Amino acid sequence: xxxxxxxxxxxxxxxxxxxxxxxxxxxxxxxxxxxxxxxxxxxxxxxxxxxxxxxxxxxxxxxxxxxxxxxxxxxxxxxxxxxxxxxxxxxxxxxxxxxxxxxxxxxxxxxxxxxxxxxxxxxxxxxxxxxxxxxxxxxxxxxxxxxxxxxxxxxxxx
Amino acid sequence: xxxxxxxxxxxxxxxxxxxxxxxxxxxxxxxxxxxxxxxxxxxxxxxxxxxxxxxxxxxxxxxxxxxxxxxxxxxxxxxxxxxxxxxxxxxxxxxxxxxxxxxxxxxxxxxxxxxxxxxxxxxxxxxxxxxxxxxxxxxxxxxxxxxxxxxxxxxxxxxxxxxxxxxxxxxxxxxxxxxxxxxxxxxxxxx
Lengths: 158, 191
Description:
Helix content of chain A is 78%, strand content 0%.
């Protein structure tokens, strides 16, 4: 019998649940294989936890302590909503959260659009101002030309 | 007084009947809890919760099953729930440690120098191995295996407690043992 096969049967071997032939085979292997025997002994030791001898007993003051605990334990206040509703409330709060986030997102994009519009308007104003200024500059020579013309006419008249 | 009479009186909040029930079944209930929890203090604590539940819900007991079967069922379920909440608390405690909390975890507080022989046994390495391996088993496998191994209950009794078929109990115990064995061997190989 190989070690791997023995390992699969160890727990049932400890509990004496194997068929007679198999039980004997495992036993023979354990006698000859040191590492399997070590694993068997450790497992058997762990199993000792379940021995009845390791059980515990309640002492004579058990009931007195129990009564004290019952008196201390005020009936727990039930939540105002049934427990079934809790997942619904969580789902609803998630939906509300997403909705609020969506609204914030929209308003943010709108505000960024407004900024862009304002910038555009400013540019237009600037362009208009520039044009007007240029126009003013362009007008200057005409005015001065007219003025010059007037002066020249006056000079001719004189 | 029969078990039926005791339960009927407890349903009417008769304290004397309740005391009788506790005195009669306390060792059994404490030991069922101990079979799952492997710690004396925890077992005593959870067993008290079992009796408190019995006192509060006695009127719901239908006498279809034996009183002891009902007590086994409550004790097993309470113990498994306790382990689950303890596992959750352990995770939270480890988070506390991560965030450098100064509160010492409950496990540390239990390490008193004058530990009893029972507690010393509970701290043994081999027992820790079994406890860890058991913790990885699915709830039903763990319950069936513990009731069978520690309480030495028959498949029929376990079937009644767990409300499953006898053949199902056999399957649960076999699979539980196989998994337990695998986990324990893996641990021994590492160490």
